[in-house]
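Private note to self, pasted from the team thread so I don't lose it. Backbone tokens:
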């Protein structure tokens, strides 16, 4: 793909969200991660999110073009991390 002169492209390779530390275990649980990071599956060349913005693209008959691709997000429920957030949101 040939990009025009006026383009911006950005990439997020991976994503990870850590929860609240559990006093018994002493480690931070991972409650959200880009799919495949924890279980080792998926192609390592795939980016989590890719965004391309062009004005006057060379290969298309339009004024602007936006292309966004995203991979799945793996979410693991952790009550120790989620319940305090729920209480905070309910009290607002």
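Design output:
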């Amino acid at each position: 793909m040939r990009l025009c002169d006026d383009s911006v492209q950005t990439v997020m390779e991976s994503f990870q969200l850590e929860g609240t530390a559990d006093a018994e275990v002493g480690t931070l649980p991972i409650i959200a991660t880009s799919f495949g990071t924890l279980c080792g599956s998926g192609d390592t060349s795939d980016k989590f999110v890719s965004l391309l913005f062009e004005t006057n693209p060379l290969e298309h008959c339009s004024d602007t073009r936006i292309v966004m691709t995203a991979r799945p997000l793996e979410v693991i429920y952790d009550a120790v991390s989620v319940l305090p957030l729920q209480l905070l949101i309910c009290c607002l």
